[in-house]
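Progress report, Aim 2. The chain analyzed during this reporting quarter is listed below.
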Amino acid sequence: MTIGLAVFSIPSKAIELEKLLMPGQLARAHSDIEADCTKCHDRTDRPRQRQLCLDCHKEVAGDVTRKTGFHGRAAATAQCNACHTEHKGRGADTVGFSPEAFDHARTDFSLAGAHASVPCATCHKAGKKYREAPRACIDCHREDDVHDGKLGTDCADCHETVRFKTTKFDHAKTKFPLNNAHAKAACFACHRDSTFKDAPGRCVDCHASDDVHRGSRGPDCASCHGTADWKQNRFDHVKASDYSLLGRHAKLACDSCHRGGDLKAELPRECNGCHQAVDPHSGRFGTACADCHEQDKWAVAAFDHEKRAKFALRGAHAKLDCHACHTGVLKQQKMPKDCAGCHGVDDVHKGSMGRDCQTCHKESGWRDEVKFDHDLSKFPLVGLHVGVPCEECHASRAYRDAPDQCFACHKAKDVHKGKLKEDCGSCHNPNGWDFWQFDHSTTHFMLTGAHVKLGCRDCHRKPDHDLTLSRECASCHRADDVHDGQFGRDCGRCHSTESFDPVLVH
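Predicted structure tokens for the chain:
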């Protein structure tokens, strides 16, 4: 019996021993489980403590499972005792909640807009858990609901949290998307009696008073007008009448053409049908104005002159008025294709240079960069001739009447007095009179040795430059003959042209 008593007394002592080992009393909310440490602690699995807490706190466990609320949004592995400490005594605050420091964005109801400045007690009533605060807009704003519940209970579907007057309702999800001017209209402009369901959707339901057509065009204003403003006309003229409105035509009012008001009345389709009175060509260019003119304005011509007339208009030609060339009826007048056909009267060369003016002149102007290449003529300009003004040789603008022989221009400077004929170029270089190019070997007296360095006048001493000189050495070297003529007149038998010394040995 003594053994049995000892066995039954061990649990009681163990319990008392656990109390002695506790770091402190539990808070008042947990005091009823203070005697059973296993409610919160698992000696063999310390991380299981979190699950033991959730086993008791069912609402928090539900938040964690659904990942909603403050606890459901927290880290999935966070231990409860990281925030809620125990064993601090009966009066200890195990929650540690500070309204001023609490981040409401970590809950399911973020405080945005005007909500951020609302006192906590406005939504969290005394004596109620924080999780029991109302969440639906209507719970707080029922008195602000001007729609009397007709639009449901979720005010946020339409209104911003900054203020009720700011709306964000997506009207595009209805049967009537709000575009352009409609997007700026106040809700009550259309929903005047706060009726939103089955609201009228036809243009004429709201715009009957704006209809300048007095119903003659039907109830669907949108078939012609856009939502930006009444002047925006989106009537598909091509589809309805097979006549495209382009350029300035697109900006015209309907009654500019449909003057009688009857849109079904037949109108002329040719340009001339409407624009005959303003045709500056008086019909000479035909009735299809669009062949030449754009539809934006008359001054802009669209006629492709190069493609259709085989004559490109460039330079000064591009600036000409059509009538400058086309003086008669377009289809009857035959136009010349070469320059002289139009510019014959302007030709200062009197036809001497041919009919193709553009070989020398540019189309931008007669005097713009005249590009005549003299090298392609019978008289290429080389040497000093390059810098000579045209007028020096071309006394008239006929140009082709200019002489091409040296003597014609240089006769007055001919020191040979014509005895060497008229072709100065056979001896002289065009870079200057003193640059010789005469080949003396063609005279049967080749210049070798010291003779090469001599000037022409060293031998041809007479003023008239007579070329009929003797080829005998003595004719030039008589004064140098130390033999006084004893060995004859041919010095070359003993001496070379390099020098009189040394004497050649035979």
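Residues 1-10 have pLDDT under 50 and may be disordered. The beta strands are 428-429, 432-436. These observations will guide the mutagenesis work planned for the next reporting period.
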